[in-house]
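ok trying again, last paste got cut off:
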Amino acid sequence: MNTTYLKYVIEIEKRRSITHAAEKLYMAQPNLSKVIREFEETLGFTIFERGPKGTVPTPEGAQLIKYAKEVLAQINKIEQISQSEFKDVQRFNVTTPRGSYISYAVVRLIEELDLDKSIQVNIQETNSMQAISNVSDGQFNLGVIRYDMAHENYFRDYLKDKKVVFEPIWEFKHLVTLAKDSPLHDKEILELSDLDDFVEISHGDNFVPYLKQLNQNEEACSKQIFVYERQTQFAIMSHVPKTYIWGSAIPQELLDLYNLEQKPCKGIRKKYRDGFIYREGYTLSNLDQRFMVKLEEVKNEVYQNLEK
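nice, full thing came through this time. structure:
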């Protein structure tokens, strides 16, 4: 039996409303109703019925909820045993897009760890679809995803289907990153035609399934080099002046390290959104929350640099 179902029925009993319980659980009300119906079919009895006082448990449902609370209490005790055994271990894992401002937030979090205690940190940079799968499957507790806002409905529906919570971070337009000694150095604002003779370096795994017709975009280029991590992108740009990448704002320290700069480009209408993701029912750890704060800080810093 899926213990998540037990949490659902307890929440409904507490709220006396499937609608209010769904809001608390970050679920769509029809989805929660469907889950409860399927659970009732599995059990062979009705758990809730509507009455003057709202949605209330049937006699069988009340007995189920009583046992459900006892089961979850025992599970919590087991988890506490595990946590007490490893209480000195600093555990953090996150799956993210290949965004430089995000990696800087990770660095700042690691700088604050107690190096005299055990550390278990797992960081994976990947595409958004894989990040959602990683979090949904329990491989990672926390993630960051990025998507074209034209695909907003697709991603929100996909996240709900995977029972993953989404918290927006910010939305932005892509900037062009290229070498300071490129032929376009003296132009403050670029036009798409300025990039005709340049080679785009992009990540080769950012394709979104089922959206083939929408993946053709205004930033498309006939000259492309596909890579799967950021360091190679930066190394190529710093040595081959007529190359560039599209992406979010990059911390100035990293731009200076590779002798790069970022410029806005006219004609770019697309907007992108970054956001945190984690499983429904997951309680964010102290390190999760600290990372989220660090990410907001770095995001604000790079945004302020853009405004200068």
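cool. The chain has two domains: 3-85, 89-308. Confidence is low (pLDDT under 50) at residues 212-216.
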